[in-house]
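Researcher: Here's a chain I'd like modeled. Treat it as a single chain, no partners, no ligands.
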Amino acid sequence: MARQAGTAPALWTPGDWNAFFGFGTNILVNMLVLTGLLRFVLKLPDDLVFGRILPALGLMMFLSTGYYAWLAYRLARNTGRSDVCALPSGVSVPHMFVVTFVIMLPILARTGDPVKAWEAGLVWVFFQSFILMIGGFVAPYIRKITPRAALLGTLAGVSVAFISMRPAMEIYTTPAIGLTCFAIILASWFGGVRYPRGIPAGLVAIAVGMVIAWGAALLGLGVGGMGLGKLADSFANFGFSVPLPAVDHVFSGFEFLGIILVTAIPFGVYDLVEAMDNVESAEAAGDHYPTTRVLTADGVVSLIGCLMGNPFINAVYIGHPGWKAMGGRIGYSAATGLMVIVMTWFGIISLLLALIPVVAISPILLYIGMLIGAQAFQTTPIKHAPAIVLALTPHLAAWAKVQIDGALAAAGTNAATVGLDKLGNVGVLYHGLELMGGGAILTGLVLGAIGVFVIEKDFVKAAAFALAGAVLTFFGFMHGEAVGIGAGYGVTPSITLGYLMVAGVFLACDRLQRAEEGQTEPSAQPAAAE
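Model: Modeled as a single isolated chain. Structure tokens:
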């Protein structure tokens, strides 16, 4: 396990093969999911997906995995150890869905322009990158004042509403494939079942989905939507595409700045906390990496990818101890980066998507949503569970509004045309949904924090978050879709007043609590004898 410090460590070991195939499969599944989101959810044109976005993403991941391989090499050389494992990294999976469903899809629905949706995603990553770069200095303070239940609760809201629901519905639309693949995923990732030769569950699920879909296609059953015509068309995306500067598109997306900042700031905070947790996990496994350098690296490579056209952010992955236990050292990280470059710059992802039915990937998305949602309850005190549920509610409102808007648009109308009174008469409180769901990320964070501090009977801190809610609402970060003084739907002043009154109630509760405590405390001095 030890070498003389200063000597060159091995760049590749037999264990790197195991880690490469395991981690490489994980990255491959994420790439397929990401490309599926771009093509089938956002319906972006193939020339944009395969000619601009994926090559830029490949560059970002190559830089990230290469940098972390270099950090591991440097640590191994300086310590003389031969068991140093590089940090795993790649596209942030939670944020993959957030930028798709919370940023790009609403902009696409509003403008009907896929390029505008892409540009909005670029601006989101632009701001996220700078938050990461400066985060090493402020993350500990933010983590200190914000309850974990609030941070994870609002993320759980996104996972339930915008990550889990669509793939769950897709699974039941094509149950022969969806439910079968979902069972494979559940049995392994929740049930601990190990498949033959250690093949990852995600790869098994995709392979089984392919067998069912292509078997049905050959029998003319039409299950899974596979066909030789689509497979032939996928070869049109083969070629060599290198990333090109997209600075002009980044700055064009600034017109959506108000919507973007509402999510970029809280999710930037979450990134900081997640990165710190993952670095601490690596240190517990014996590999010490400086948190500030890791956060800065994620920010820099994400910014480079953004400026070249990639709307997805980079992150250090959880799971370093697992890859290390598998035998991974330095080489597996760099090899994964090379694999991604080949797949994204030569259009190979297009062929893989033509071979794999989308519904076979849906269970993986549902699993991710389940995992993120469960994490909020599993890693926080049980008594904070009501606060987590409170943090979920704004996201449910936002999701319901998206569904209603989509249904009305398909009918060629909208809520205003139908009439809010008519919708209310059938139980659809549309105006309440748009108010509560506007800026759901921050609303969930504030409500969750208020809930935690009330449960803890810390009414002063609950009042402080209520005041923060008043300020954020007044400037349009909450309960609105635009940033500005008194922004929103024209009624945010009344909501702002409501939060101020909530703060007043909590301060009054604090006074009552202190008065009761004073009455029950025993006298500090004994009574004088008469």
